[in-house]
Each structure stands twice: as C-alpha cells, then as structure tokens.
Amino acid sequence: MSGSLEIDQNLARRLVLEGATLVFLDVPRGTEFGIDMKSWNTGEKFRGVKMIPPGFHYVYYNAVDSEGDTAPRIGFVHNFKKSEFLVKKWDSAIEDISSAEVSFEELSRIREDLLNLDRFLGPYPFDVWKRWKDLTSKVTDNLVSRIIPQSGQIRSALELISCDYKPSSGDAPAQKRRSRPITEEEREEHLLPQLKPAPGTELRFIEFPERNFPEGSTPAEITHHSLDSTYVLETMVAKYARPVDIVGELQFAFVCFLVGQSLEAFEHWKRLVGLLCSCDDAVSKRREVYDEFLSALEAQLVEIPEDFLVDIVASNNFVYHSLRSLFRTLQLNEIVDGRLKSKAKRFQDRLTAKFMWDFTGLEQEEDDEAPVVVKT
Questions:
Q1: Are strands 85-91 and 96-97 parallel, antiparallel or unpaired?
Q2: Secondary structure of residue 255 in the 3-state scheme
Q3: 296-300 long-range CB contacts below 8 Å, 24 or more apart?
Q4: Each residue of 42-53: pLDDT tens digit?
Q5: DSSP per residue over 53-83, as a string?
Q6: How many CB atoms lie within 10 A of CB 66?
Q7: Are 265 and 253 in contact (CB under 8 A)?
Q8: Residue 306 reports pLDDT greater than 60
Q9: Contact 53/131 with Cβ under 8 angstroms?
Q10: What does the longest C-alpha to C-alpha distance in the chain come to?
C-alpha cells in the first residue's frame, strides 16, 4: 500500500505531526481495505494508515477467502481528530473487526513502538482528499451519530431476519380491511418469507412523511402539493438542527452508496434528489439549501461510475429529469436571486459538456422519458 500522489513537503511535514493514525492489526493478507475513495489488497506487512487529515473518513474492508471470493463490504465512519491514534484489531473467527476494546496498556505500548511500526503504515491517499472533502462538506458529528446503525458498522449486505408478524386480537381481519380482492400476485408475495433488517444494522435516515400534503387539505390543495413538494421538504427540514443538514444527509447517503456499496443508501439518495428538485416554492425560501445542494450534486455526479451512468442513460435518467425540473423552476422563479440562477446555469453547462445532456427549452413541459442528447 502506498500513496499515489506527490504532496507538498510542507503539507507532508504538517500531517506527519498533526495527521491521525489508524493502526489495524492482524488483518489477513489479501483483505480488501480502503479509506475514503481508495482501496488496496493488504500485504503481510500491512498495519494501517498514517497521515490521515483531521475530519470525517470512511474506513472499509472486505474479507477474501482462500478461493479469492470477496465477502460483502463492511465499514465505519470516524471523525479523526488532530494527531489521534486509533487502534483496531481483526477477529479471524468472525472475519471482521474485533468488538473487544483495546486496553489502555496495549494502546500505550503500541503507541510507544510507533517508530518501529511506522514503516508498516501506508500514507493516506492524498489524490482523493479534495474530492472527499467536497463530497462530505456538510456532514456533521450530529448527522453521523444519528444516521449510522446502532451497531456502528455500515454493511453493504444487511442481515435479514423474519418479521414473524402476528396480528393482535384487536386487529381487524385482513379481508375486512381490504377494499378489493387479493390478486394472485399479492397471494404469491404473501407466501414468501417476510424479512426485515436485524435490529441495529440499518441506516437511520430521516423518514419521509406518510403523505405529501397537510391534514385537512382540500382537493385543490392536494393537487398543488402533488406538483410542488415544498410541504414534504419543510416537514423534513424541521427535523434537522439546521436546514442545510438535509444536504449533509444527501452527502452521507451518497458516500454510503459510493464507498460503502449500500443500496439502501442509494435509494434514500435518489429520493432526496427527487424531493429537492421538485419544490417550486422552496427554491427562494431556502436559498442556502439550494446553493449547497447544487455544489453537492455536482461533486457527486463527477464520482458516479461510468457503467452506472451508462445504465441510467440507457433507461430512465432520473437525475437528468429531476435537474431539468429544478433548472426550469430556478429559471422561471422571479424571486430567486441572480447569483443562484447563474450558479445553476454554470452547472447546466458543465453537465452538457460532460454528459451531453440538453437543458434547452426549459420553459416547455417535458414529455419524453429519455434525456435529450446534444447533437455535435
């Protein structure tokens, strides 16, 4: 394991003194190990990572068996402090990090031996640092502590258990609660085992409200809220310490997908993108949120794997259609200030240059499901 970028010597000296150290002992050779957006297969001498810039970092690993098969990814997020010294141990019995606490005496002994240990520590990969900071600029301690599973680990493959649902005596019979007969498809689905994530293993994202309109809304108001999701956005924003924390959650969901390979996080990210792009009234009321959202989404779209983009373009590109709706709202909303409109226009131009997406004619309603491609 080695860094892939020559860094400024002054920065290197500062990080030698101020950078954090992660010591990871007893990791089997060949294990896939990564931090942020770089991963390696460990060698016999691997003992961890040094010169980690202070801040949030995502550490992850995949056990690899003797046949070369890779287990699902497991990881954790840690906010490294200046000069922090963190020690983790591998438990071969469970092929995972040991849950046992490293004693103070052992921690002190390892730290005292740091000079001998140093040559077995790989430097943090600085070629990803700026991109990582852009992807996590609004992620805070409070957000992370609320979202991460109670187990402390983020898993790409959730452990599922049976729901074992048994209706109580007060429940009405299922047939009486239904307003229509059960279809054959529903009957077959009912025969399948009902599963849910094991307690403490699921990501704890903010939940969307059950309905997208206030209680007591008139039919006309319900129609309005179905076209403008500002009510849903405001309901969710009220649950955060700061309105811009919804962008922090968007960022955290994205890195849990990009780095942690969590489909659960990907689905939440998609819902947040769709929500933020479908709020006509909120774009002027929540200017800071939308300013940060545009920056966050642009940083994210740079990192989406090429095959993922091709798959989206080949089918229904929800990002394109969502952004087309948002750009149209920003363009036509007379209350939105010029700086935010200019930022959105520059974002449009960069997307057109990168993906050949066409955002012309935003004042017209879009009926076509596929993205319009610029002819060159």
A1: antiparallel
A2: helix
A3: 296/135, 296/137, 296/138, 296/247, 296/250, 296/251, 297/250, 297/273, 297/323, 297/347, 298/347, 298/350, 299/131, 299/134, 299/135, 300/135, 300/251, 300/254, 300/258
A4: 999 999 999 999
A5: PSEEEEEEEE-B-TT-PBPPPEEEEEEEPTT
A6: 6
A7: yes
A8: no
A9: no
A10: 74
How many C-beta atoms surround the C-beta of residue 342 within 10 A?
Answer: 10
Tokens of 16: 């030698």
- Cα–Cα dist 245/272, whole Å: 12
Torsion of CA 204, 210, 214, 217, to 10 degrees: 170
Arithmetic mean of pLDDT over the chain: 85
Residue type, 42: T
Res. 149 pLDDT band, cuts 50 70 90: very high
User: Can you tell me the distance from the alpha carbon of 144 to that of 136, in angstroms, rounded to the nearest whole number?
Assistant: 11
Judging by DSSP bridges, how do beta strands 85-91 and 20-25 pair with one another? parallel
Which contacts (CB < 8 Å, 24+ apart) does range 104-108 have? none
| Residue pLDDT, tens place only, 260-297 | 999 999 999 999 999 999 999 999 999 999 999 999 99
**Strand partners for 39:** 34
Say how many residues make up the chain.
Answer: 376
Based on its alpha-carbon atoms, the radius of gyration of the chain, rounded to whole angstroms, reads 24
Helices (H), 238-317: 245-258, 263-276, 282-285, 287-303, 306-314
The Cα 324–Cα 278 span in angstroms is 10
Please list, residue by residue across 98-120, b when 16 or more beta carbons sit within 10 angstroms of its beta carbon and e when fewer do.
Answer: eeeeeeeeeeeebeeeeeebeeb
Query: What's residue 318's pLDDT?
Result: 83
Asked if pLDDT for residue 177 goes beyond 50, the answer is no
141 has pLDDT over 70: yes
The three-state secondary structure class of 224 is helix
